[in-house]
Design brief:
Elements: E1 2-4, E2 16-17, E3 19-23, E4 28-31, E5 36-41, E6 51-56, E7 58-60, E8 64-68, E9 71-72, E10 75-79, E11 85-89, E12 95-101
Antiparallel strand pairs: 1-2, 1-8, 3-4, 4-7, 5-6, 8-9, 10-11, 11-12
């Protein structure tokens, strides 16, 4: 879960949503229910009627912050004694996501 902290869409600021996709090469993320774009489509086999489709578009990764206990938090990195590297929430100290580097054997 992430919170939108900035961006072009003023109505999106302050919203929280689940990250659907991460685009690391472009430094962008797609967040559920944020930055909705209406796209007009022609009829096709997938969509025989055509019409207007609403899609979530990507936003820059600097405009989101992870959410811990309902509040946005910064992230710091910690190297553990076993050799693993993890992302840790500054607010609360919880581990976020999977380890960035595996533990040494």
């Amino acid at each position: 879960m992430v919170m939108i902290i900035a961006g072009r869409d003023a109505k999106g600021r302050g919203k929280t949503g689940r990250v659907l996709r991460v685009l690391p090469a472009e430094n962008r993320v797609v967040v559920e229910g944020v930055n909705i774009c209406r796209k007009h489509t022609r009829p096709s086999q997938k969509n025989p009627e055509g019409g207007v489709v609403e899609l979530e578009m990507s936003i820059h990764i600097s405009n989101v912050q992870p959410v811990v206990d309902g509040k946005p938090t910064r992230v710091r990195f910690e190297n553990r004694a076993d050799g693993s590297k993890v992302r840790v929430a500054v607010r609360g100290g919880q581990v976020i996501g999977q380890p960035l580097r595996k533990a040494r054997k």
